[in-house]
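Chain A, query sequence.
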Amino acid sequence: MSKLDNTGLTTKLIASEQHLTLKPILVKKRIRSFKNHISFKGLRHLTNCFMSRNNMNLIKFFIPVISYLLATNPAVAGVYKCTDSQGNTSYQSTPCALENKAIEIDVKTGRSTDISLELKQKERELALKKQQEAALQQQLKLEEKRKQDALEQSQINQTLIKNNPIQYSAFAIPPYLADNLTGLVKKYQTRLPEIEKFRRLAAQKALSTGECTRVESDELSIKSKHDQLVFSIDCSSAKTFYFNESELIN
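Chain A, predicted structure.
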């Protein structure tokens, strides 16, 4: 019986080789069909094993395997836990709606991330950035307005000098240009329009004393403070006057 089986098996192998040589494509199709059949039978057997209560050890073996396959599958690597305004919670594979509380769960590591907090943090950072940019723009506008106001006051001074050449020398009140200030004036540059106005008032006050025939120089004094500016007036009579802003306002 054994010999006969061996002979028969040999005959089959020879026939298979001849068939493989003559029709390789057909053989490949049959082999593929056989593999599919085996895979189907194996899958069916595996299912039956899971359905049987007597194979708990097998089930325990396959649970971590299946978990690993799920974790390594990119399609299910991230799960989103979404909670709406009504408190309803759902799990989904796509990101939650923006208005809902969202927690992303990484199946691979088990780590959860509160996306809602991250979004709120980004929104706060964006709002802060916009606020800082708005504050910067406002500051630039104020600086530009201050320059313009100072220039206008300076022009009034020059007009006064031009119309009164006897009382003022040509360079009695030289303009303080915002982009080219001396160290002393720069300390008080935020008050530049007031400084130019007070210089004019100080010169007029000195002339009104009768002791100053002609104003030769009108400058911000080193005696100035942030809350009390002081101006020095040099006259052609060699007399110098000092006036603080309180005296010029009254």
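The chain has two domains: 1-72, 144-249. The beta strands are 78-83, 89-92, 101-106, 112-114, 215-220, 230-235, 240-244.
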